[in-house]
Amino acid sequence: MDKLPYKPLGDCIFIHIPKTAGISIYESVLSLDRPFDWFYGLHHDYLNQLMKDPEKLKSIYPSIDKGKSSIKALLKESSIRTWPVHGASMLGHIHYQELIDANKLTQTYFDQAFKFAFVRNPYDRLVSLYKYHRIQKQFDLDFDTFVHILYQEFDAGRVPPVGLYNIQPFPDTSPLHHLMVYGNQYNPMVDWLPKNYRDTVLICYLETFEQDIDKLLSMIGFQGKRNTVPKKNKAKYEDPFMEFYTKKETIERVNHMYKKDFEAFGYDLIN
Predict the structure, then answer these.
(1) 57-89 burial by CB neighbour count: b if 16+ within 10 A, else e?
(2) By CB count within 10 A, which of 30, 131, 158, 215 is most buried?
């Protein structure tokens, strides 16, 4: 009788879109290789910036000191290693094509593996990111003002794209710049997926999480009983997300920023 976390027998890749229950899946549902550690992979420019500013570095990595051993450990932990050529793994928030281009992930493994991802209502996901990054505390911005600024950042090209890193803050020129606010996580969910995802990736929904977990486990060979999956890494406050959408302008901006997600995954637009 199988137990959780379950190790898939064949080739399997979890495409982890930010704020879609990925940590719950990784820690409680599936046993997956993750070839990256501290903060799950840092962009090299971001790491270089941190290395030049000990105070900033210490603010997000309190145990660091000026000793060479600590610096070496940091460099090792922040690096992205090479993916296996077989087995079950997760990509984190790193873009699959960037990994392939950097020879960290083989095209053959990616193509032949069973791939899955979870998605979430775009309105709900943006509220979750707003809470998770503590935008109100970091910038003293209410949700409507934050959405307005984020809309401008998309328009100005200052939202870091999905790339060869798990986290990447907004640039110094952005009013949303903060080392603990990861701008790349605000991209539309479809940006993490291959263009032919409809034919190659099992899309699961956070709104039907338990049912879709059962479907996923069945498809990868799990035979056993399981308990309800505990929620991990969730925002501190669980307000109904629609309470944040009281202004027409905010709704219209979110509809525009995440148009691709609404169309791709069948979520209803608020007009």
Answers:
(1) beeeeeebeeeeeeeeebeeebebeebeeebbb
(2) 30
